[in-house]
Write a structure and sequence with these properties.
Blueprint: E1 9-12, H1 20-33, E2 37-40, E3 44-46, E4 56-62, H2 68-81, E5 85-90, E6 94-96, H3 103-111, E7 136-141, H4 145-150, E8 154-159, E9 164-169, E10 172-175, H5 181-192, H6 198-209, H7 221-230, H8 234-241, H9 252-263, E11 267-271, H10 275-278, E12 283-284, E13 287-292, H11 298-304, H12 306-313, E14 319-322, H13 331-346, E15 353-356, E16 374-375, H14 378-388, H15 391-405, H16 412-424, H17 428-443, H18 453-466, H19 481-495, H20 505-514, H21 527-550, H22 577-590, E17 595-597, H23 607-614, H24 620-634, E18 639-641, E19 644-646, H25 649-662, H26 672-687, H27 698-711, H28 714-748, E20 752-756, H29 777-786, H30 792-797, H31 803-818, H32 820-825, E21 827-830, E22 833-834, E23 841-848, E24 851-858, E25 880-882, E26 886-887, E27 895-897, H33 898-902, E28 907-914
Parallel strand pairs: 1-2, 1-20, 2-5, 5-14, 7-11, 14-15, 15-16, 17-20
Antiparallel strand pairs: 3-4, 6-13, 8-9, 9-10, 12-13, 18-19, 21-23, 22-25, 23-24, 24-28, 25-27, 26-28
Length: about 950
Amino acid sequence: MPPAIPLATYRLQLTADFDFDRAAEVVPFLKALGITHLYASPIMKARKGSTHGYDIVDHSQFNPELGGEAGFARLSEALQKHDLGLIIDFVPNHVSVHFADNPFWLDVLEWGQASPQAVSFDIDWDQLPYRARGGVLLPILGMSYGEALEHGEIALRYDPDQGSFSAWYYEHRLPIAPERYGEVLRMVVKEADAAGTEAGKRLLALAARYTGLRRPNRKEAPAFKLELKEIADGADIIAHGLAAYRAGKDRPAQTLALHHLLERQNYKLGHWRLASSDINYRRFFDVNGLAGLRVEDPGTFAATHRLVKQLVADGKLQGLRLDHIDGLRDPAQYCQRLRRLVRDAQGTTKPFYTVIEKILCEHERLPRFAGIQGTTGYEWMNAITQVLVDPKGLEALDETWRQISNRAPRLAPYVKEAKRRVLETLLTSEFTVLTRLLSRIANGHYSTRDFSADSLRQALELYVLHFPVYRTYLTTGAPTEHDRKLIDDTIERARAEWFAADDGIFEFLRDALTMDLLRPDRPQHSTPRVRRFALKVQQFTGPMMAKSLEDTAFYQFHRLLALNEVGGDPASTGLALPAFHQTMQARAREWPHGMTATATHDTKRGEDARARIAALSEIPGEWTSAVARWKVMNAPHLALRGSMRAPSATFEYMLYQTLLGAWPLQGPGPDFVERIQAYAVKAAREGKEETSWLNPHQAYEQGVKSFVAKILDPAQSGEFLEALQTLARRVALLGALNSLGQLTLKATLPGVPDFYQGTEFWDLSLVDPDNRRPVDFAGRHAVLASLEAPDWSHLIKTWPDGQLKLAWTRHLLRLRTELADVFTRGDYQPLEVHGAHAGHLVAFARRRGRAAAIIVVGRLFSPFTQAGRAWPVFEELDATVDMTGYTAPHLTGNQLPLAQAFRDFPAAVIGARAAGIAKPARQRAHA
């Protein structure tokens, strides 16, 4: 049996081209590498052709494109044969909607609020204007509604096998409400001139059977549809009569008929651009095709977790990664329910490994959730990066960025501007829902009714602009002390920018956000509305921060791209060694089993590309000089048109960092230019400065692509490419040394090391979809087999081929297996380093009882490599690790000279024994 707490996890991205069977073929390689748990992308039924699996349409089924239930059984058998556990990426927050493949969503479109599935979706039914009945906006049209009608792109169709009517817009099915079937049948019989036929009479009789509003109702509709489809020759009449609804520019009567029918449905069709301002269902961020689920509803929770429960009960699932936990209305309640479900399925209270995708901002602490071992590890990835960068170099890069951007190297103004942009464009509709709700709360009592809707909107906007993290975690009770302080502090920052009369509006807003309005000693306000407002604000601020920080500001602020990572601080000044050690000691006490990631499917660049770019902080002067020369060399390739400069000066700076991070040492392949161009367009659109996803600036984007093509063309930019290649070789060496240190830290720090597919070789990928390219696992397995007894000296000499990283990965994972108790349950003790170069080492011990491991990792190698020109000679480093209290083979005394620890390698992990029995670190049980 695999251990309950993984020793190491390995993430696989499953697709139709890499399904359950292909994953099963990889299992022997993972076992040989030292992995204990396969960590798979979502496996539930997703939209056909999905490349990631997060667009689930049915949580109760395996994805047929991955091989369905039979394919999963084969993968499960392979995992059990090799004693590997399975962790799956589970998506509780949302499902994919529109098209014709989500039965829950289609039922809601057909029956509206009468659908039993309506409670599963967060829809504001009464928000659509100028409608006599509630409905949900469907922003699926590629042109205006009127144009789509007149072009005949919306068609009414009949399904003779189901006895049902639906409107179709290309692949989107839009069920017609059964209460409108009567009028449709009368219209089609008349159009077909079939009233005198036997089938026509039966159709008209069926249409006349149900009178009154909302009939046939949900109970009556199945019999109605069954009788309809059994009418002989009825389908032929309907097929002919549907011409009455065949819209077109030259068919005004038919166009109007179809329009009137559509206006009487439980939905309203609209252009896709309407989503940002008018959409009335909660989305995943700003993705119209992903609708938020209300898993707080017990029925919805049970339906979406049925398959998970069965897999746990069958012993085929050993862990979960919970996607976008911040999207849930009440994450604490959800985690409690999930733990109960798992215990019921297991029949025991043994640990079940569960981590959450939670992005923590700088200095933010993870709340406690039932049954949760920690996060997926973004915060630890950033801690590792920040301890590997040179703080002095960052100060120099501040000035470089100031000169290039003409702005101070402070992130906060970028984030605030980005939030304002996102509010005005991408998430306007969600914000409007909140402001309307807040206004209704204010109008519910005479003491607050004079707060105008416009003033409340402005006050709430200021609050959102100044809110510093992703969300608070209020439940239906009083806020925690931490959340209350967070709300109070944000209110004060918002108030400082309020220039109108205050009149208590911020006190009212604060009390609504904390739900203090519901205290018995306060004027009575609507309890359901106040609670709904406070909890919905929490669901809004997460997407708001993500779209503003990760998906906007990170693509504008380019001081050093290595720091522009999910959960990171691009303006960081680095992490001093004492602070790093304190952070890891706290982690060993509080979250010893969360994941430690250095690359995921969501990271902005590959782990080794990031390590290369981090090395620029070690040579800031040379880097700045190189950029200055390159800008002159490449100036002729800029696209200039009026005031447009493509790329902009800041974007050009970002491109040079990207090229150094991704540059292949053997030279760029045939697809390299295309990859950089694709990345550049995505980065430009995410940055929302010169172009965006909402309003693409074709001339600018073409100018950027042309610039990339020209500067990477040897015929046009030979001098630049030679200079780039020269610096790239040096940065690659410094980056490789950083990477090996990063890998060693990941494998030995408190936590579970997670390996993203393919990263056991150098990972120079860019943001998705570039980081989801196929991986040659067979080649990796063959190389691994040849490295059973690695020749480290040879591997160091041939380090560019990546085999050194692969061999070191297996070496580290074997040590984790041999010292499993030390690494999974041991405490963390910083070790003192003496000597002139002490600041170039991260040294610590992991200890459980008397068993221990001494870890020494080098950093900031530029002075010892001739600034990246040669592999370091460690005898030149004046540093000694104080090992007082520990003994190790071949070591005499308490001092470990660095040259003895490293030999020729930039990191070392040494098995040791503690001189005395240490009191084990106290750890909270996460069962």
